[in-house]
Structures are given as C-alpha cells and as structure tokens.
Task: inverse folding
C-alpha cells in the first residue's frame, strides 16, 4: 500500500465518521487556532510597536536628565543630576557634526479655549524646528513651526485634528486665535490625523515653539534633546560626540558615570521585547496544552481504530503485509487526521485574528512562519501520538487477529 492509498483510507474514515472525526480533531483545531491567533497578535503588535518607535527612523537618540529608568533608586539618583538646559542645546548644535537635525523638546498639559468651546488637559508640546521629522508629523493645512517662530518666541501653534474638531468644528482653524492657559496663540498649521494607539488618541495636542514654551510654562526646568544622525551607520558617532559634549559641560572626569541619560529607539525595542517575551512564551504554552489534549484524543481514537480493524490487520498480514506497512498506514492515518485539524486551525486562528484586528485597535498580522509552525506542530502531534497505536497494530499476531470477532 502506497502513501496515497493510506491517505485515502484516512480521509475515507473521516468522511465515514464525521461527528467522531470532528470531535477527534477538535483539540488539534483549538490548539493550532490558539497558537496561530496568539502569533498573529504578537506579530501585529511587533510591527505596530516597531513602526511607532521607529517612526522617525532608527537613527534618532534622545538626551535628557533621566535616561532609561528601571527602578525607584535610579530615578532618585537621576533626579539629582543637573537639568538639560538651552545651553546644552546650543553646545550640541555647534559640536555634533554627524547630526543632521537637533530638536529641543519639552511638554506640559493645559486647558485650551476658543470662544465658548473649551478643552481640558491638552498636551502642549514645546518643539524647535525639525520636530515634524522626529515626531513623524505631517501637515494637512497651513505650515509647520519655523526657526524664525522659535528665535522670536512668537505666540503661534500647530494643532492636532482632534483639537481642531472640538474647538472649530467645520471652521478653518488657520489664522484663528486660541487661548492656551492664560495666553493667546495664532493657529498656523493643522496636522494630518494619526488615529489612536491602544485606544488613546494621537491627535489631541498642540505644538508651540520651544522658546515660547519656555517663556510661558518652563522658565526653569529640564529639556530633552532629540538628535537625528545623517544615517543609521553614523548614529554611534553622534552618540559619542553627544556624550563628549555633555560630559565636558558637566566637568566630568574620566571614569565618572554620566550625569545625563541617552536613549535610542533600540533601547525601547529591547524593553518591549523583555516585557512581552515572557508573556508570549506563557501564552503559547497555555495554547499548546490544547494540542497535547488533541494528541491524546487522536491516540485514543487510533487505539479504538486498531481494535475495530483487528481482523482487517490479520487479513493484510496473512496476504504478506509487513510490520512496516501496517505501522506506516496507521502513522499516515493519524498524521492525516492531525494535519487536517491543523489546517482548519490555521484558517480559523488566522481569520479570527484578522477579524479582531479589523474591528478593534488591537493589531494583527498572519506571518508565514506562524503558518509553517502550525503545520509542523500538527504534523508532529500526529506522528508522536500516533506512534503507539501504529506500533501496537504492527505487532498484532496475524493468527490471533484473524480469530478476533
């Protein structure tokens, strides 16, 4: 009996006993569907987070007072460092030759009003020119803030779509004046909508020139400074030049720890991988339990099948079938059953993940490695749990099998 005949017998058994076959495959279907769904959500989340973190490119680093904080002790230590001030911005702009853009930034929350309409706790972002590249902001109408706006500390602003909708409705916001906290600003630009991230709006903000921000909200305090290298390969040079400048301004001797923090997009990606790695493994482990249960069910059904077909096995052996032929047939049958469940599980899990991704903020993406993993897992379950029934069938004594009723 060749492989095609064995597969045909297995599929014939599935068709002949539809309910039993469905119940047999249910564990495998649920297990593979769970694994595929989890992998799809993880893959979608990975792509989403990577896109958001690297929205300005992988060649951006940020200098601030705190850096990457992982504990209360580290925060308390960083809090005693000197503030990153405007002098640091000027020094970096002069000395970091491999940076194509250096953007000073800070932020606060304030109420915003236009006429009788008001919004509470809107994000007010102080930025120097070039912020649109670093923050991945595109202009819809009007213009971005310029270097002239910053140096002259002009009371102008660029607003997000949510602010425009709530304050102006169908009116064109360009050229109109809004009240931010206690001060009046002219709207010169409206950005393109970015939507929500994990249910939180990315369009509820106002950008003002950084020196205007310092004048009104932050006479004293610490900035953060974003530096964009010419290309990704020169990021390490920018980091070293930045470290040299900042250490010199703080009069630090060799061997002393930095009195400032430097973070890159890779820092946040590494944190994300660390946080999600354990959760991902645990979730896959829980989903794999269904596969084990499904494998046990397949083994049980195959043992029942061996018992039901004892006389058939005796006849085949009497006609010259070898142990290897009998074992191969039952292994093919169990693998075909499991693989059928795996294919159904892949379709079900992938479809469910894409459906959830389409109707909710949770991103999902079905990747080819996930599909291959589903096929390999379901095939492995069929081979592993079908081995014992196949060996048992192959070892049946043909005389005793022929006598079996």
Result:
């Amino acid at each position: 009996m060749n492989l095609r005949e064995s597969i045909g017998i297995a599929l014939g058994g599935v068709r002949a006993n539809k309910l039993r076959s469905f119940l047999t495959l249910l564990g495998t279907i649920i297990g593979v569907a769970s694994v595929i769904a989890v992998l799809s959500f993880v893959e979608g989340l990975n792509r989403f987070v990577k896109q958001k973190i690297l929205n300005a490119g992988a060649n951006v680093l940020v200098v601030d007072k705190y850096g990457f904080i992982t504990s209360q002790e580290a925060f308390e230590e960083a809090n005693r460092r000197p503030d990153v001030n405007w002098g640091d911005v000027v020094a970096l702009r002069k000395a970091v030759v491999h940076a194509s853009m250096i953007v000073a930034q800070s932020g606060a929350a304030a109420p915003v009003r236009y006429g009788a309409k008001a919004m509470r706790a809107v994000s007010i972002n102080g930025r120097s020119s070039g912020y649109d590249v670093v923050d991945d902001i595109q202009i819809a109408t009007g213009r971005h803030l310029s270097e002239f706006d910053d140096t002259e500390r002009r009371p102008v602003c660029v607003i997000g779509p949510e602010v425009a909708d709530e304050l102006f409705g169908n009116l064109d916001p360009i050229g109109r004046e809004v009240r931010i906290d206690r001060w009046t600003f002219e709207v010169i630009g409206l950005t393109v909508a970015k939507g929500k991230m994990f249910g939180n709006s990315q369009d509820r903000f106002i950008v003002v020139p950084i020196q205007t921000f310092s004048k009104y909200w932050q006479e004293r305090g610490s900035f953060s400074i974003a530096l964009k290298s010419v290309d990704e390969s020169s990021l390490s040079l920018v980091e070293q030049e930045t470290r040299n400048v900042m250490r010199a301004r703080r009069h630090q001797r060799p061997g002393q720890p930095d009195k400032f923090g430097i973070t890159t997009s890779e820092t946040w990606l590494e944190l994300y991988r660390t946080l999600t790695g354990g959760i991902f493994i645990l979730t896959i482990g829980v989903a794999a339990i269904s596969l084990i249960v499904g494998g046990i069910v397949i083994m049980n059904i195959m043992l029942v099948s061996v018992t039901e077909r004892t006389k058939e096995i005796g006849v085949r052996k009497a006609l010259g079938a070898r142990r290897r032929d009998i074992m191969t047939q039952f292994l093919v049958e169990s693998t075909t059953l499991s693989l059928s469940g795996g294919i159904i599980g892949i379709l079900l899990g992938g479809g469910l993940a894409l459906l959830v991704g389409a109707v909710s903020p949770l991103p999902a993406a079905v990747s080819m490695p996930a599909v291959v993993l589903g096929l390999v897992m379901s095939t492995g379950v069929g081979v592993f749990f079908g081995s014992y029934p196949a060996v048992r069938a192959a070892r049946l004594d043909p005389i005793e099998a022929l006598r079996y009723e």
User: Anything to note?
Assistant: The chain has a mean pLDDT of 83. The chain is about 55% helix and 20% strand. The longest helix spans residues 265-308. Residues 3-52+270-403 form one domain.
